[in-house]
């Protein structure tokens, strides 16, 4: 008997969703390729939480011990007024209403590395420094033209490339009709830990704008965070950092505490990440209709 041919799947995006999906598809008998435009796994980024049902998933993947080892154990969130006077402090997990036994906080880069390591030694093929350039579904398979010039055909193509997914745009059209802004923009960047912060953060908030500094354990660098409400169209579509910095300075004009220092650090940061707080809402998330 000739064994059944494994169905081929291309996943766009090698952050968290992409490698996790690749792990399970490989386990269930699919031939999986992950394409990622970055030259390697991205190791930076703000800490994130693995909690609730996600704990069950990583446990079934055999990764829970490593993830628990990477737990950064943030302690408290302290709120201050515009003069820096402490208003109050609350334990992190009480503030977010989380069960400490079902919540692990770890650096995003650590999680992406663990997920990548769990898949790269199997049958999952990673193609870095490349991306999907063209996509045509003829109803029987999908012909892909890669930005690097290679051509290939897959049974299934899955976009796991984030809020501004190029894969979704190639299949369903421009993002604008699907992107529903929740009325906020945010900025995230690293800066020197010149305040000696440890295992937690300090927050100052006023109506429509919030500033924070967050320390991961005793790191010599901390994360700055600036978020503000806005009715303007999100600047993320153009990825214009100078325009985002200008808008953020205007939004935080006159705010006290460490905000002037944060604004200057944001403008000088080489790792500034900014976006709108948005949701993608679509009538359906898959199609077999032919697209070119």
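^ Assign residues to that structure.
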């Amino acid at each position: 008997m000739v064994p059944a041919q494994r169905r081929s799947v291309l996943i766009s995006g090698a952050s968290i969703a992409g490698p996790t999906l690749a792990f399970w598809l490989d386990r269930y008998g699919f031939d999986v390729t992950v394409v990622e435009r970055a030259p390697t796994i991205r190791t930076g980024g703000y800490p994130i939480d693995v909690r609730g049902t996600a704990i069950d998933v990583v446990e079934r993947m055999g990764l829970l011990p490593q993830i628990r080892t990477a737990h950064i154990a943030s302690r408290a969130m302290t709120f201050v007024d515009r003069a820096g006077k402490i208003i109050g402090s609350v334990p992190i997990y009480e503030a977010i209403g989380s069960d400490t036994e079902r919540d692990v906080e770890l650096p995003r880069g650590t999680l992406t590395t663990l997920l990548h390591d769990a898949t790269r030694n199997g049958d999952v093929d990673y193609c870095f420094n490349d991306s999907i350039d063209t996509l045509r579904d003829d109803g029987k398979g999908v012909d892909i033209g890669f930005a690097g010039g290679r051509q290939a055909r897959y049974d299934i193509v899955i976009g796991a490339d984030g809020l501004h997914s190029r894969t979704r745009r190639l299949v369903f059209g421009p993002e604008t009709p699907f992107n529903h802004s929740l009325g906020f923009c945010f900025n995230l960047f690293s800066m020197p830990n010149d305040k000696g912060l440890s295992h937690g953060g300090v927050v100052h908030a006023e109506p429509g704008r919030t500033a924070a500094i967050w320390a991961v354990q005793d790191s010599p660098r901390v994360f700055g965070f600036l978020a503000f409400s806005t009715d303007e169209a999100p600047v993320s579509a153009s990825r214009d950092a100078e325009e985002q910095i200008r808008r953020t300075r205007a939004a935080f004009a006159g705010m006290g505490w460490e905000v002037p220092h944060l604004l200057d650090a944001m403008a000088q940061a080489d790792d500034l990440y900014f976006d709108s707080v948005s949701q993608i809402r679509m009538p359906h998330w898959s199609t077999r209709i032919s697209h070119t």
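The chain has two domains: 1-72+99-173, 179-280.
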